[in-house]
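fyi for ur records
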Amino acid sequence: MPSSIELVENTKPLETNQNKQSSQQLLLIENEHYLSKAFAIQGTNLGYQTINVSTGEVLSKELKSHLVDSRPNMIVLDIGFSDSIQLLVIGDIRVLFDGLLVVVSNKNSEQEQIDAFTLGADDYLIKPMNSRVLMVRIAALFRRKNTKTNQVALASLTLGDVCLQPKSQKCFIKGAVVKLTTFEFNLLKVLLEHQGKILSRDQLYNTLLRRVYNGVERTLDVRMSQLREKLTLAGMKKNQIETVWGQGYMFNNISS
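which gave:
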């Protein structure tokens, strides 16, 4: 049975809404304007800024640049009747984007849903769907994201010898304050939040420097070395920042 989205006459792609002053920017990645129709049905009073782009089995140069430069709050990806190759686009997006990611698909496949979530999706929706349901799901994801962000901002992050207080931007090693630059603090915070997981240079450059790693620049390596030296001199022994050659960096708790 056709969905209400598919019956809409206005099929013009929805471009950026410049008149709305919203803090939530949505990037709609699609090839058939299905998502654009959904937003057109609901009207422009939702307060979201939306940008529509298309992609294939690999990310275009335009899309990569947009992910780094514009840093949308959410991506809604319509993979249509996808195959396993196209689904890998999710993993490529996750290298450059750590925000909310919703996948919309024509296939009601249990394995595809598992693969999508494994690659980094936050939600998986099956077409056809009611446009109001799509909007409610998007709003719910933003609510959960904001609640989690507020909780993290107020909490201390502690592991082994290290304790970070994000709100005051203070770092403690064994209870003593360690003076870090803003970049060093943010670098350590990202490593601590992902402790036990390898973070690639691409991910760190995008998160901390908001640009794509060019494969040559050594800025991150120098800053990482300086951070390690400060933490070691401060007496950190229960943790280590490990270099995983060819992959990136990982923060570990080595205490017994």
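The chain has two domains: 5-151, 155-253. thats all i got for now
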